[in-house]
Design goal:
The protein is α+β, with helices and mostly antiparallel strands and 138 residues long. 38% of the residues lie in helices and 26% in strands. Strands 1-2-3-5-4 form a five-stranded antiparallel β-sheet. A hairpin with a 4-residue loop joins strand 4 and strand 5. The chain is elongated and about 50 Å long.
């Protein structure tokens, strides 16, 4: 069993799920608020990445505000994940990297915070509301 499979095995035990790697080398989970999280592993430099598509980026002035707020979030002291733009899909995405070895308990907690982060950004954009700032907790 490789390092990624071992991480998924331990994580699956904690979450009471059967987790597996698909043909693309990705494991996808659906968390609270219907947030889809993909996990993938880079063998060099041994990094586990959580990634999620947040929402399609709307046209207009709100788009500019969204990108500005995303950059500010990336630079903040409460940096829970990195926000980025996926141009092929016109999507705002979030990702977070973890260096191996990982503590499974910490990973579960970080995933909960990541899912809440994605959810709050999605809801704000869909409602055209002010974008989230500050800390996120489980």
């Amino acid at each position: 069993m490789g390092p990624f499979e071992e991480i998924l095995y331990q994580l699956g035990q904690k979450l009471d799920l059967n987790l597996y790697v698909d043909d693309n080398g990705v494991c996808e989970l659906v968390g609270r608020h219907d947030v889809h999280v993909q996990l993938f592993y880079e063998h060099a430099p041994m990094v586990l990445t959580l990634a999620s598509s947040i929402v399609e980026v709307p046209p207009g002035k709100y788009r500019e505000i969204l990108f500005l707020q995303a950059l500010q979030s990336n630079a903040s002291n409460y940096h829970m994940a990195t926000l980025a733009y996926s141009s092929p899909n016109n999507m705002l995405v979030a990702f977070k990297n973890f260096m191996h070895p990982l503590d499974c308990e910490d990973l579960v907690g970080s995933m909960e915070v990541f899912i809440e982060f994605v959810h709050q950004w999605r809801e704000a954009v869909l409602q055209g509301a002010p974008l989230p700032t500050g800390s996120f907790s489980r």
